[in-house]
Design goal:
With 258 residues, the chain is mainly alpha-helical. It is 82% helix and 2% strand.
Length: 258
């Protein structure tokens, strides 16, 4: 397939086509709210959203402050959940009996609705960052665990047999055959786990928190500041997109052999 064809739309570069569509949509949105000002209460106004973002980033700094608390909880919960999930998945790979014993327990725990658990986490860990980390941890852990188990099961048996035939030790086979083969699947779980860590933290902050983008979003919604609500949602969408791009670049760099 021609490289240029996959990055153009009607002869226009893909990035430019996206920019044109988004700009046209925002102009139509702005025009509609100028014609009917009462719409601002329901859908906000692009100029008001931009002003809110500018003030929050370069004037009062509230978006930086709340964003720092949210992203700190996201990174901590992601690291803790991913490390424990990968370790558990590898344990299951080398000890099928352990997996057989814990499998129904894991399914039951994963089936619990996280929103229903949020009040318990608040009771146990308080309104601070710990309760947000706990909730996001439960989301990240099971996603990365499933990816790790799936990756370890996807290892080609022929490769393992060939390694044994040349005298490779079980430890060498695990590190250089099984783990290497499973890494692309594990990394897909890590990418998804980071997104869900963000969703878990924001969801927990919306319910109750002292600081964070979710708490700020709930405050703005409670005061009918629609421009602010859409500004926070836009910021979260940009953060999610940035996470996806960064994880894709990291995967490409680390798994260059794939």
């Amino acid at each position: 397939m021609n490289f240029k064809q996959t990055h153009t739309v009607l002869g226009i570069p893909l990035w430019l086509a996206r920019l044109v569509v988004i700009t046209a949509f925002c102009l139509l949105w702005e025009w509609a709210t100028l014609r009917r000002p009462e719409l601002r209460l329901y859908v906000g106004q692009p100029s008001g959203i931009v002003k809110f973002l500018w003030d929050g980033l370069f004037d009062d700094g509230l978006l930086w402050l709340n964003g720092f608390w949210s992203m700190s909880a996201v990174l901590i919960s992601f690291l803790l959940g991913s490390i424990l999930a990968i370790a558990t998945g590898m344990l299951f790979a080398v000890s099928p009996r352990t997996e057989l014993f814990l499998h129904p327990i894991m399914i039951g725990l994963n089936a619990l609705p996280r929103i229903a658990l949020a009040p318990l986490f608040l009771l146990w860990f308080g309104l601070g960052i710990a309760s947000k980390i706990a909730l996001a941890f439960t989301l990240t852990f099971f996603i990365v665990l499933d990816a790790t188990v799936a990756g370890m099961r996807s290892v080609e048996s022929d490769h393992v047999t060939l390694a044994r035939m040349i005298g490779a030790s079980p430890g060498w086979i695990f590190r250089h055959v099984a783990l290497v083969s499973a890494m692309p699947t594990i990394f897909s779980g890590l990418r998804l786990g980071l997104i869900y860590a963000l969703l878990g933290v924001i969801g927990a902050e919306i319910i109750a928190a002292e600081q964070g983008l979710g708490q700020y979003l709930a405050l703005l919604a409670g005061t009918f500041n629609t421009d602010g609500v859409f500004a926070i949602l836009l910021l979260l969408a940009l953060l999610g997109s940035a996470i996806g791009v960064l994880m894709a670049k990291l995967e490409k760099r680390l798994l260059y052999w794939k």
